[in-house]
Structure formats: C-alpha cells, structure tokens
Specification:
Number of domains: 1
Structural class: alpha+beta
Strand content: over 45%
Number of strands: 8
CATH topology: Immunoglobulin-like
Length: 149
C-alpha cells in the first residue's frame, strides 16, 4: 500500500509538471520596458512595439513597429490616437490613420506632436496585419509621458 501511494504521488507530480509546462507554452512572451511594450501576438502579428517619448520644447514622439509572421499583404498601424490628460480624464488631441506597408514583413511609423510643456500624453495604437488567410488587429495603450522644456 505504501509503495502504491508513493508511485501515485510521483505520477501525480509528473502530470502536474507537464500540465504547467503546457500552459506556460501558450502564454505570450512579452517585454515591458518603461515606455515600450513588445509582445508576440497572434497568427498574423509576430510582435509589435509602441513607444512614446517626450522630446525637448514640448515635442511628443511616437514610434511604432509591427512585424508579421510572414510577408503580409497589408501591415502597419490602423490608427494612433494621441491623448492628453485634462481635468482627470484622457481626451483625444490628434489621430493618424492607415499607416500601412504592402507586401511586407514589417512596418514602422514615426510621428510627432507639438505638445504643451507640463501636460501628460499617451497613445492608443491599433496594429493591423492581413494576408490571404485573414487578418488581425491588436490595440495597445502606451504609458504616459509629460511634455518637457
């Protein structure tokens, strides 16, 4: 009976270890590095990166990159909504749309906005990738930055 219990406990432990590994393999890999967010995403989007920084003289800089899982018919940024924090809530101040590359593995965008020194800004970015099998969109909100002198 003691042998049976030990054998059963070992099998149960082995099964738990295998199940944990299988679940962990399904989790996406990601890196959150302050103002940059990178994640392995979907069947169509391998990873994406949305970055916002405060440059001098109130300038806000947005850089976005998306890479497909292969050559995509259309890939890029569907929209970028730049928001400013005003009276306790976020308000849209600028929008860029349809920033695409065609028949490409990767697309990058670089956008600037003349902000107000001392104000906080963030961006909501919608990435897009499409091929003959379908498409996917992923939305991410960046951290906020404060415009500086």
């Amino acid at each position: 009976m003691k042998k049976f219990f030990i054998l059963f406990a070992l099998q149960l432990g082995l099964m738990a270890a295998l199940c944990t590994t299988a679940v962990a393999a399904e989790e996406p890999s990601y890196l959150n590095n302050g103002d940059t967010f990178i994640i392995m995403a979907s069947e169509y989007i391998d990873y994406y990166n949305a970055s916002i920084t405060a440059d001098s003289n109130g300038m806000i800089v947005l850089e976005c990159t998306v890479t497909g899982t292969g050559i995509m018919d259309i890939i890029g940024v569907e929209s970028i909504r730049l928001q400013k924090y005003v009276s306790g809530s976020w308000a849209d101040v600028k929008e860029w749309n349809d920033l695409y590359q065609y028949d490409s593995l990767r697309a990058s965008t670089y956008s600037t906005y003349q902000g107000t020194v001392g104000s906080r800004y963030r961006a909501i970015v919608t990435f897009y990738a499409e091929n003959e099998n379908g498409y996917d969109t992923i939305e991410v909100t960046t951290d906020s930055v404060t415009a500086k002198n």
